[in-house]
User: Fold this.
Amino acid sequence: MTEQPNANPQQPGDPAGDRLAPRPLARPAVDPAQAATFGRPRGVDGAFDKLYQTGTNGQTAPGLNLAPPTPESLAEAFRRPPGAEGVVLERPYGTNGSEPSANDAEGPLWTTTSDPWRDPGSGAVLAGPAVQQETEEATDAKRPQGALLSLPEVLFGRRVQTKALAILAAVALLIGAAGGLIGWWFADTGTELTGEASISEADAAKERPAGSIADIAHRVAPAVVSLEVFKPGADAGQQGSGVVIDTQGYVLTNEHVISAATADSATKITAVFFDGRRVEAKVVGADPKTDLAVVKVNVENLTALQVGKSADLAVGDSVIAVGSPLALQNSVTAGIVSALNRPVTAGGDGGSAPVIYEAIQTDAAINHGNSGGALVDATGALVGINSAIRSSSAEGGSIGIGFAIPSDYAVKIAKTLIRDGKVVHPDIGINASSTVAGSSTMGAQVRNVAPGGPAAAAGIKEGDVITEVGGRLVRDSAELLVAVRARDVGEVVPVRLVRDGSSLVVDVKLASD
Assistant:
């Protein structure tokens, strides 16, 4: 580096001659906006404390431009009142709120000399309250009691005439009524989904003309009972229905309903009437071959069912089944006669012989427990004893195919049981089976002939096919049996049969089984 001329001049008094003079001050240009904000007031060249230095006569330093004088309006509003110069604005009170005494008074809180922050040019200083606070007792004593306000004055601020109040109430009622009507109209027509329902109701009671199902059920119910068959101590028993056929207490039912009582004398039978009465029933007689039985109850004022003629029925006639299906007492179902003279084979459970009888077929719902109950016609007369059903399930529910023993035959058996306690049936003295499908002749084919029996005496041989008994068509072995049992013991009936392709008729005198 080369030295610049006069870069390091020697200072006077510096023996070494190696000290440098101070650099000249760098004074950048001052921004006029910053100078106006942060610069000294106009006319001030020295330090800021010169602003507050006063002269000997209390005036500010000469050459200073201070704040402009206070406007006259503010000075008049906030200056001391005339004659109050030198009086401070606040002084503490003495004890009990009295004027301060010479002993307890303190000096003014603000003075021009004790407060270093006090502006000497201020026009106000703090002092005590201008008015002494009055006590509540003194205030109440000075304030007079005013008159009490009435309701119109409270509500309306002044007195109101009674007529004006009445008019106001009427107007309020009119407005409320109009609002209610408008609200009702909107509620009634506002939506199509809601509104007042117009439900038509019958004024009179239900019509139950004579012969209606309700009328028949009302008349038949007292004569139909529920039979409960149980052995004391046993967990289960049998249940069915019965029909009172005589006011002396005779009840007709199915033999399979009370079979447990006939097999074991310890088993009890209870008859339950429609009004809830429960009485014990005794077995009068039972006939397993026709599935009919009679029991008797000791009850006064019994209602017996009128017995009609089942022979007068026609297919399509209305019938009603009454009984206790599945232990549901006094159940009523209605239907029609589906078929007549229908040979039915039922029973055969537990090794017992099957029961074959001629039945009335009906579509009135019949279920377990209906057995022994009544099948009545449109007049309410007994035309059958409900006995069996055809079912498509193991539980045996109704599918509209039920069977009832015709009343003509059932009452005949019942009278015999009441009179003799047992029934003797006519017998032809043969064993037969139905002809196989495809045979040239339809009927009951003789399998064997009892020696010395009615058939043997009439010349009937094994292999013959019986087609009619007493003028009644026989199409299978079941129809042969019911046709024979429809006759009486000792009666002679013509029997048509086919032998070696030839038809012939023989007379058979029926014997007892």
Notes: Residues 1-5 have pLDDT under 50 and may be disordered. The first strand starts at residue 224 and ends at 230. The CA atoms of residues 378 and 484 lie 31 Å apart. Residues 426-512 form a domain with the Pdz3 Domain fold (CATH 2.30.42.10).
